[in-house]
Design a protein that fits this description.
- By secondary structure, the chain is an alpha/beta fold.
- The chain has three domains: about 160 residues, P-loop containing nucleotide triphosphate hydrolases (Rossmann fold), CATH 3.40.50; about 170 residues, 3-Layer(aba) Sandwich (Rossmann fold); about 80 residues, GMP Synthetase, Chain A, domain 3 (2-Layer Sandwich).
- The chain is built from 14 helices and 17 strands.
- The strands form four sheets. A six-stranded mixed β-sheet has the order 2-3-1-4-5-6, with helices on both faces. It has a six-stranded mixed β-sheet with strand order 8-9-7-10-11-12, sandwiched between helices.
Length: about 475
């Protein structure tokens, strides 16, 4: 079962703290932050994992910048973000108080007929009651009081966000015995995604052209092959933010991200004629973070010389080392070369991502790893890893119990991940390890035992004094 991520948009005047809140929610520094109005002009997308439910966050430019042309462009970006959003966070500044620009934005947001949470930022050092009273005239109900720079009040804001989000919508009905495998085709613009979709289907199902940006929305194509149901999702190409100017193209990015999140398997296409780019690495990092099963198709391989092929292989080893678990298959979407091999990887990847493992098997692998390479000492004590069990699927999650697990080095965690992958025969999907430290059952009895020992020594001393 997979869920379509809801979208939360941040709107407000310039310099009210939208980008600061965005960075806090996404645990990143993707949005530029400075004490300068109008710094953010384009929309920024990220994923929030802080609460009980994940969602996509959209940071927008401030409305009301000094430059009128920039203000119009920012307003256009906000319009696109609001059209996509399931929930709107309207940020205002407690230090500056209510302004005419706030009232104009409030009028615009109120007409959307979407859930809105008024967020009063920069509340540190201010009287919350006075700030709430001042902004109550906007008519958005009880505001959320936060200080985004320090994370104050954000936990309560997350609880309100989760209560306002639409109900979770799974891509497959619960209890379905043979769900369709959702396969998302991702990559930069003009790498051949639509051509590959048509080749897999055997018909011209999606529009193909020799210029980037042909595909705008995420197009789902259900079909059946050898009794197995599939849903192919053709997504818009994602370019570097600095090169994205068309508002419609920016609007389609969130659709591509949602398609990746809801997929069981991701086919990532690389244009072998252009080599591996930094944008390829960034997009693959997002796929890895989402934990999706992955196969990489090296498209347009048939047109390369031997020197070019060697160069691309070297780039794969150096730039894409973090997805070394994924197969990298040379194909030609236009002529069909290697496409069959690519498609044959989909169902095995799906089975691996949904695989279930017994606790006894996982514990034996853990004990084998510890015996061959024991964990290091911490403050003179050995880290003990006791047993392991499965905590989830898609991707496989292995929960390891022990003591002092929080002190395990990252290198040892990678060692365990590689050993579990080898012993379980998992190829093409990431494995996530979660470490839990057991509580000391004698922790609460230490003081009582110590007091008993003290009383015993006191009685012994009194007895010795009497005898003297």
């Amino acid at each position: 079962m997979t869920e379509t991520l809801p979208v939360v948009a941040l709107v407000g005047r310039p310099n009210v703290g939208k980008s600061t809140l965005f960075n806090y929610l996404t645990r990143s520094r993707d949005a530029l932050v400075a004490d300068y109005p109008g710094l953010t002009r384009d929309r920024q997308y990220g994923r929030c994992r802080r609460g009980g439910r994940d969602f996509l966050v959209v940071d927008t430019g401030g409305i009301g910048a000094a430059d009128e042309a920039v203000d119009r462009a920012a307003l256009n970006q906000v319009e696109q973000a609001l059209a996509e959003a399931d929930l709107v966070l309207f940020l205002v500044d407690a230090r500056e108080g209510l302004t005419a620009a706030d009232e104009e934005i409030a009028d615009h947001v109120r007409r959307l007929d979407k859930p809105v949470i008024l967020v009063i930022n920069k509340i540190d050092g201010e009287d919350p009651a006075l700030a709430a009273a001042e902004f109550s005239v906007l008519g958005f109900g009880e505001p959320a009081m936060i200080a985004a720079a320090h994370g104050r009040g954000v936990a309560r804001l997350l609880e309100r966000i989760e209560s306002c989000l639409p109900p979770a919508q799974a891509t497959e009905a619960a209890g379905e015995e043979n769900p369709a495998i959702r396969v998302a085709v991702l990559g930069r613009p003009n790498v051949g995604k639509s051509t590959l979709i048509n080749r897999l289907l055997g018909e011209e199902r999606v529009v193909v052209a020799d210029h980037p940006g042909t595909t705008r929305d995420a197009i789902e194509v259900p079909f059946e092959r050898d009794g197995r149901r599939y849903v192919l999702v053709d997504t818009a190409g994602i370019r570097r933010r600095a090169r994205v100017e068309d508002a419609v193209e920016k609007f389609s990015i969130v659709k591509a991200l949602q398609a990746m999140e809801s997929a069981h398997v991701v086919i990532f296409l690389v244009d072998a004629s252009e080599g591996v780019t930094d944008q390829d690495a960034r997009l693959l990092g997002m796929v890895l973070e989402a934990g999706r099963a992955l196969v990489i198709g090296l498209n347009k391989w048939d047109g390369l010389t031997e020197d070019q092929k060697r160069k691309v292989k070297a780039q794969l080893e150096t730039q894409l080392y973090f997805v070394d678990f994924a197969d990298k298959l040379p194909i030609s979407a236009r002529h069909g070369t290697g496409v069959g091999n690519l498609f044959d990887r989909i169902e095995p990847l799906y089975r691996q991502a949904q695989a279930e493992f017994t606790t006894s098997r996982l514990t034996r692998i853990l004990q084998e790893a510890v015996t061959a390479n024991p964990p290091p000492l911490v403050r003179g004590r050995r880290i003990r890893l006791k047993f392991a069990h499965q905590g989830g699927k898609n991707p496989p999650l292995i929960v390891i119990h022990g003591n002092q697990t929080e002190h395990l080095l990252e290198s040892y965690r990678r060692y365990l991940s590689r050993l579990f992958r080898d012993r379980l025969g998992i190829r093409g999907t990431p494995i996530r390890l979660e470490f839990r430290s057991s509580e000391n059952p004698f922790a609460g009895r230490v003081n009582r035992l110590t007091k008993r020992q003290i009383r015993k020594r006191q009685r012994l001393l009194r007895h010795v004094k009497k005898r003297r």
